[in-house]
Design a protein that fits this description.
The chain is α/β, with parallel strands linked by helices. The chain contains 14 helices and 14 strands. The strands form three sheets. A seven-stranded mixed β-sheet has the order 4-10-9-8-7-5-6, sandwiched between helices. A four-stranded mixed β-sheet has the order 1-2-3-12. β1 (about 25-30) and β2 (about 35-40) form a beta hairpin. α3 runs parallel beside α11 and α13 (about 340-350) packs across α14. The longest helix has 19 residues, at about 300-320. It is globular and about 60 Å long. The two termini are about 40 Å apart.
Length: about 400
């Protein structure tokens, strides 16, 4: 067996399909977000503007966050020293879990190294702790949720995206005493759709189901204190388990669940993804804690973030660029071809100093490839002018609607 050849063939297939991914080698300027240096292959580093970061509010560079992280390093050092069960629970972790529980108005919270691990471990463990659980999953759920559902090994149904009637048609197939779990997101990060949370909770109550909501792309960004769409809509108390991240709106790293004391205690005690993983570095927990506390009392970042997203959508529509309508802060520009999508984003980076990552399969379905823009509070009108002008020029030279393809990046 030529093992190396098998891997080479797998990579070659990605190149043929136009969806081979290349990392952008960046060095951001602290205090000057969204500006960064881009280190290209064989070329000197040059200034670019980042338009695709999930650091939605720029909290990774907020003075309070940086000060808290410095203080933690100076006080307790770098790493946590172990798993949560074996010396890895510091006071920073305990305080952060209390802050998360308060944010979502739940009895408890549980920290994980990432929201992916939180989803995977929790959804797997719930099914194993309640044998016979039937899972109802929105068709556009994140890969981490799909992984957790699969690892749990139970019966599952995929319901049409945000389609309440389809969800009910599946739920009513089972007796009310059959254990059920409805799994969905609040903000779907590639299309920008928002779930009808209250209506889903209505069905959960009607058919005796638990609810599991992923608020990863909403925490910090929506609600009076940054609790997400569920807080904005006044339905947090109706949800059983809320998953969130510390790496996007809060600008640091890590994931969590917030739920009842019994649920969090059970996941803590049974989930391998929690038990056997070294805990977050104390400085990371301290930074996330400072970020969350700040955003609970400050709406300025959220308000400006929403204004910037709405302004960019309006500017793109005015320029007749194919921006996808949605009610959230996500700004997707449809391309519909993987090779073309990469060509446009390569040209933006190479010729215009604009970094926007192409989003291709399997992140989105084939023929829906897009550029996903994430404007934040620090993206000025001047930066928007440059972005819209750059995209407009590329669209004129390489119109997607006519199916033309020009190898822009090579020019």
């Amino acid at each position: 067996m030529d093992y190396a050849k098998k891997f080479e063939e797998a990579i070659a297939a990605l190149h043929r399909e136009g969806r081979y991914r290349v990392f952008a080698d960046l060095k951001r300027h602290c205090g000057e977000y969204p500006h960064a240096l881009h280190f290209g292959s064989g070329t000197p580093p040059r200034e670019i503007t980042v338009w695709c970061s999930n650091d939605y509010l720029g909290m990774s560079q907020h003075p309070k966050v940086l000060a808290a992280m410095h203080e933690a390093i100076d006080t307790v050092g770098a790493g946590s020293g172990g798993t949560r069960n074996i010396s890895g629970t510091t006071h920073y972790h305990v305080e952060l879990e209390r802050e998360i529980a308060d944010l979502h108005q739940k009895e408890s919270a549980l920290l994980f190294t990432s929201a992916f691990v939180a989803n995977d471990a929790t959804l797997d463990t719930v099914q194993k702790l309640i044998p016979g659980t039937v899972v109802f999953s929105d068709e556009k759920n994140h890969a981490s949720m799909i992984a957790g559902i699969r690892h749990g090994g139970g019966m599952k149904h995929i319901w049409r995206h945000n389609d309440i009637e389809d969800l009910e048609s599946l739920l009513k197939q089972y007796p009310k005493d059959t254990p059920k779990l409805i799994v969905f997101e609040s903000v779907y990060s590639m299309d920008g759709h928002i779930a009808p949370i209250a209506a889903i909770c209505d069905l959960a109550e009607k058919y005796g189901a638990m609810t599991y909501l992923d608020e990863v792309h909403a925490v910090g960004l929506y609600g009076p204190r940054g609790g997400g769409i569920a807080e904005r809509d006044g339905v947090m108390q109706r949800l059983d388990i809320i998953n969130g991240t510390l790496a996007k709106g809060f600008g640091v790293m890590g994931g969590y669940i917030a739920a009842s004391k019994a649920i969090c205690d059970a996941i803590r005690s049974y989930a391998a993804g929690f038990i056997f993983t070294t805990s977050l570095a104390p400085a990371v927990a301290a930074g996330a804690l400072a970020s969350m506390r700040h955003l609970k009392s400050s709406n300025a970042e959220r308000e400006l973030h929403q204004e910037r997203a709405a302004t960019l959508k309006a500017r793109l529509k005015e320029a007749r660029l194919p921006v996808m309508d949605n009610p959230s802060h996500i700004v997707p520009v449809m391309v519909g071809d993987p090779v073309h999508c990469k060509a446009v984003t390569d040209a933006l980076l190479t010729h215009y100093g604009v970094y926007a990552q192409p989003i291709n399969y399997p992140t989105v379905p084939r023929r829906t490839e897009r550029i996903r823009l994430t404007p934040g509070p620090m993206h000025t009108d001047a930066l928007m002018d440059h972005l819209v002008a750059s995209l407009s020029e590329l669209w004129e030279r390489c119109p997607v609607a006519q199916g033309h393809y020009v190898k822009l990046a090579a020019e």
